[in-house]
Amino acid sequence: MTLTYPKTIRNRPRTVIIGAGANGLAIAWRLAQAGCEVDVYDKGAAGGGATWSSAGMLAASAEAEPGEERLVALARESQAMWPGFAAELHAAAGMDPGYRETGLIVAAMNRDEAAKLEFDHNLQRDLGLNTHWLSAAEIRRHEPHLRNGVVGGIHSPGDHQADNRALARALLAAAHNAGVRVHEHTPVQGLELVQGRARGVRVADEVVPAEAVVVAAGAWTPDLAGLPEAVRPPVRPIKGQMLALRMDPDRPLVHHILWAPAVYMVPRPDGRLLIGGTVEERGLNTDMTAGGVYALLEAAWRAVPAIEDLAIDEMWVGFRPGSRDDAPILGDTTVDGLWLATGHHRNGILFAPLTADALSREILSGERIPELAPFRPERFQRESAEAGP
């Protein structure tokens, strides 16, 4: 897939963006580059929500699921943008956003798991994705510290990573350098509507006027006061528990992004090894639980036994913004001047370049990008209409 971008800039609207995560900041940066006056509001620290909590995996190929062909194509489009996006961001921010081409390994620890992975690999092959089957000997050459007896797995050399926290810092700096005003710890009280049109937001009992309002508040998007029910997206928080272990950066135990049953491991150049994988429908519950931590450590130890000697560096909880169909919600709404950029689930970092380019170009041109049609907010309105009373 290659997006059909509008070529003409017709407007440079004053824009308010609600949410200073990776996608909100990236949209703001792009709009400011084009000459727009942009304000970004966040109830917490910039980059402190799902962006701060994520692992930063850019796994368009490994994430492929049956029936998600259009989503996979969109994800691959955004993944292909990442090298150029990271280089431009590095130059604009004066700091490294942490893009690393490490590749990804999916390991099967027994024959039942291998049979499941073979099904996944056949799907990836049918979709034309760049993945390769590894024998037991081959996978151990890629990851020598995998447990003896590992059966085999999949190598996805085009799936990489970005350091989510470094990315947030770089986007904040680039946005600031481009003239964006970022208001941290400043919650938006509600959307300001005038004759059914979005014309700004209310902040501290004052109206901040805007010609375009972008809601990029992740799992908190549906809670925005004043958002008409007809365009309120079906987004919910999906809790994930994570922890980081401390490896010797000169002798890391894991070299690639490593997926094993019920867990993923993401090595950072500084020696941190991020471990995650829980998917919990617990609302906005922030508790780290004994069961969650045990499940992560047991699954990681089952794949790489040597982690048992590593120190625990940090533990945290994050909330993925999940939509009803597990696809992002991108684009304009039936409320004039109102845009949504949410529902990215576990792929918010992956989709940041595409979300920023697509939404900023639509706002600037006033034209829709055809390839975004399956991912627009209106798809849920059509579902409601088809379901009837």
Q: Describe it for me?
A:
The structure is a single chain. The protein has 389 residues and is an alpha+beta fold. It folds into two domains: 15-94 and 164-234 and 324-387, FAD/NAD(P)-binding domain (3-Layer(bba) Sandwich); 100-158 and 236-323, D-Amino Acid Oxidase, Chain A, domain 2. The protein has helices spanning 22-33, 50-53, 69-93, 111-126, 136-142, 164-177, 290-303, 348-365, 378-387; strands at 15-18, 38-41, 57-58, 99-100, 104-108, 132-135, 152-156, 160-162, 181-183, 190-194, 197-203, 206-209, 212-215, 235-246, 257-260, 263-267, 272-276, 311-323, 329-332, 338-342. The strands form four sheets. Strands 6-7-5-15-16-17-14-18 form an eight-stranded mixed beta sheet. The protein has a six-stranded mixed beta sheet with strand order 9-2-1-13-20-19, with helices on one face. A hairpin with a 2-residue loop joins strand 10 and strand 11. The protein is globular.
Q: What's the gyration radius in Å? A: 21 Å
Shape: globular
CATH class label of the largest domain: Alpha Beta
* Helix proportion: 25-40%
Q: How many beta-strand segments?
A: 20
**How would you name the CATH homologous superfamily of the largest domain?**
FAD/NAD(P)-binding domain
Strand content: 25-35%
Number of helices: 9
CATH architecture of the largest domain: 3-Layer(bba) Sandwich
| Main pleated sheet | 8 strands, mixed
Distance between the termini: 37 Å
Briefly say what this structure is.
The protein is α+β, with helices and mostly antiparallel strands. Helix content is 31%, strand content 26%.
